[in-house]
Amino acid sequence: MSARDAILSRIRRATGRGDDAGRQAAVAERLKSHRRNLIPERGNIDAKARIKLFEDMAIAVQASVAHVASSNDVPEAVAAYLRQHNLPQHIRHGAHETAANMPWAEKAPALEVVTGPAEPADEVSLSIAVGGVAETGTLVLTSGPDNPTTLNFLPENHIVAIRASDVAGSYEDIWDRIRKAHGEGTLPRTVNMVTGPSRTGDIEQRIELGAHGPRRLHIVIIDE
Amino acid sequence: MKPASREFKNNASRALNDAQLQRALNTVQGGFIEKRRNAADKLPEFETLRDQARDIKNHTLEHLDLYLAEWESKATAAGGHVHWCETPAEAREAILSICKRLNAKSVTKGKSMITEEIAINPALADAGIDPVETDLGEYIIQLRGETPSHIIAPAIHVTKDQIEADFRKTHTHLPGDRNLDESTALVNEARQILRQKYIEADVGITGANFLIAETGSSVIVTNEGNGDLTQTLPKAHIVMATIDKMVPTLEDVSTILRLLARSATGQEFSAYTTWSTGPRRPGDLDGPEEYHVVVLDNGRSGMLGTEFQDVLRCIRCGACMNHCPVYQSIGGHAYGWVYPGPIGSVLTPGLIGVDEAGQLPNASTFCGRCEEVCPMRIPLPKMMRHWREKEFESKLTPHTVRTGLGLWSWLARRPGLYHLATGIAARALSAMAGRRGRLRSLPLAGGWTRHRDLPAPQGRSFQARWKSGERSMQ
Ligand code: SF4
To answer: How far is Cα A17 from Cα B232, in angstroms, rounded to an integer?
Structure first.
């Protein structure tokens, strides 16, 4: 017998109690129903309060937040952020149409904008989040040519743009959104939930930022 | 990892006398405990979520064969490869054969206790493959040739000064007079060195906090982002998991995630929760070309249907050891195998046998704090008692304890004789102690009297006094 079959049949003997049909039905039902467990009340608030909570929670974990009126204003906000932190005017983003359609040359002529997956020398990247979760100030990013995963981790500075209307109350709201976009029973290769910049407490439990991933996480909320 | 749990008593007394270790352990109490309390207090639903998480895992364990099969078919449909293994040796073999096929020279590793359980690092090194731990704590202990002493803070037993010394000794290509006074400088130095390792690695190995049946995904929860660079940059991503990591749906795991970081580090949410499903997709510009999950049993299925089933709910948050007075006093290494603290005392005898690890369930004051804080409501003290009973049944307790308890139970079943014997004993001890009322030494009780006196009974036995009507406290 293969290891697989040996393990599975041992489990069946220990838990099965003969009722195969009942057990199979219970499992099928659970996988299909997307039934939610208790969701904390914290995120169950109107849109304006939700965005405020998202922002407060993100700042509490050392992210920084800026607002812009429309996606056309992102290039200027990015350029300003780079100046503020004495960073080179150079960013990389993926093929996401929101990023591609931003008026980079017009609004931030000094900024060099390249696309593709991150390279080790890149200091700043820009991603577009599929959503945010107000409950914990968490960004959700999905992999693909639109948002290569390396952009989220290699550069020391990660800028993420998110539409205010994409900030959800709970993780569960985001799962429904991802199921709609990518189908049931699967996920994109990588889903990253990002809550603040990289950190470690491994040296005498003191929190230090920028352990391996980005030292800085800057969130640009597009209010339109 | 070769177990040293038989040596628990010696390990523990050595730990108590280790000044460096005691200094390092001081941080456990102030740090984790207070932060967990604050995080739990900030979420009014925290206790209800614990009930629900317990129920989710109970349901999963009752249907584990079906969820594993469902997860496997989803993972395979996404292009992943699943390797089922009964034993650590099989798991090592599965990982080595992937690495050899890819001609791997170096392997980066995210934090994974199961890779400690199967001792993959020495096996990789023997095969000429360089294993590089990338979690900062794991990197530090790898330099020191040590094993983790805590499941989420592996280097908690090391002080900053020791780390500085280790870095100076190992990173000899850097200027000897560089300033490493601040922990920031140490973190930066490790960051620079490990950057290069991620890029050079042929294979990345991570653990898995969860496997999701609904989508065939594996999930890791980290703060550093090392697990992400480990799984994204190399050609192949190998996930090392065990069968008990299973959770049915995205909703179910979301509930458990609300407890994990709060219980572990007192964060509302960890910095990175990463969901991986298969290898890179057509059109993807990065990500691994191969995705493998090595799923190990190693004795876990044997706990199902027994009084130890509930321990398979564990999500390895570390709260039980953070709150354990025994762990706080001796640290993790004294437990002698991969999992320390209360969870180790319950899990280790199940995985490596009660004959190897029978001392661990005795490493408890039965204060109950572990169960109070366990997010999955695992009755840890009760299980330690079960193991004690098993250890006793299998005659592994020391001879004096066994005969003593045997004699006591024989007596206890004979009330008349019992009263007579306890009465005599009480009076005898009292007489031996004399006016001081304390005994400096007593045959067969050296374990007690070596470190403190034994107070002698004051007068008659409890039962005798009860009988004669002395029922109020005067
Ligand atoms: S037993 Fe409970 S408290 Fe201990 S590590 Fe497991 S889940 Fe956490």
So the answer is: 43
| Of residues A4, A138, A150, nearest to B269 (C-beta) | A138
In chain B, which residues have pLDDT < 70? 29-30, 395-412, 417-418, 420-474
Q: Is residue B239 part of a domain?
A: yes
pLDDT, tens digit, for every residue of A140-177?
Answer: 999 999 999 999 999 999 999 999 999 999 999 999 99
Q: Is any Cβ of chain B less than 8 angstroms from the Cβ of A121?
A: no
Q: Is B15 in the pocket of ligand 1 (CB under 6 A)?
A: no
CA of B344 to the centre of ligand 1 (A): 10
Give the alpha-carbon dihedral of B244, B250, B256, B257, to 10 degrees: 110
Burial B449-462 (b: 16+ CB within 10 A, else e): eeeeebebbeebbe
Residue A189 contacts B, CB cutoff 8 Å: yes
Angle, vertex CA B317, rays to CA B311 and CA B319, nearest 5: 90
Classify residue B124: in a domain, yes or no: yes
Chosen from A4, A5, A10, A11 to mutate, greatest number of chain B CBs within 10 A: A11
Q: Tell me which chain B residue has its CA closest to the CA of residue A182.
A: B215
Position A184 scores a pLDDT of 95
Round to whole Å and give the CA distance between B218 and B275. 6
Give the chain B residue whose CA is nearest to the CA of A121.
B195
Compare CB distances from A189 to B163, B273, B276 and report the shortest one's residue.
B276
Looking from the CA of A78 toward its CB, the CA atoms found within 13 Å total 33
Q: Would residue B386 count as lying in a domain?
A: no
Residue pairs spanning A and B at CB distance below 8 A: 271
| pTM > 0.95: yes or no | no
Domains and CATH numbers, chain A: 1-33 (no CATH), 41-222 (3.40.50.10420)
- Report which ligand 1 atom has the smallest distance to the Cα of B313: 7
Rounded distance, CA B402 to CA B173, Å?
Answer: 59
Contact B283 A145 (CB under 8 A): yes
Q: Which of B263, B298, B333 is the last residue of a domain?
A: B298
Residues B256-267: pLDDT tens digits?
A: 999 999 999 999
Tell whether ipTM is more than 0.90: yes
Q: Among the three residues B298, B324, B351, which one is the final residue of a domain in this structure?
A: B298
Which range (A115-129, A207-221, B432-446) has the least confidence? B432-446
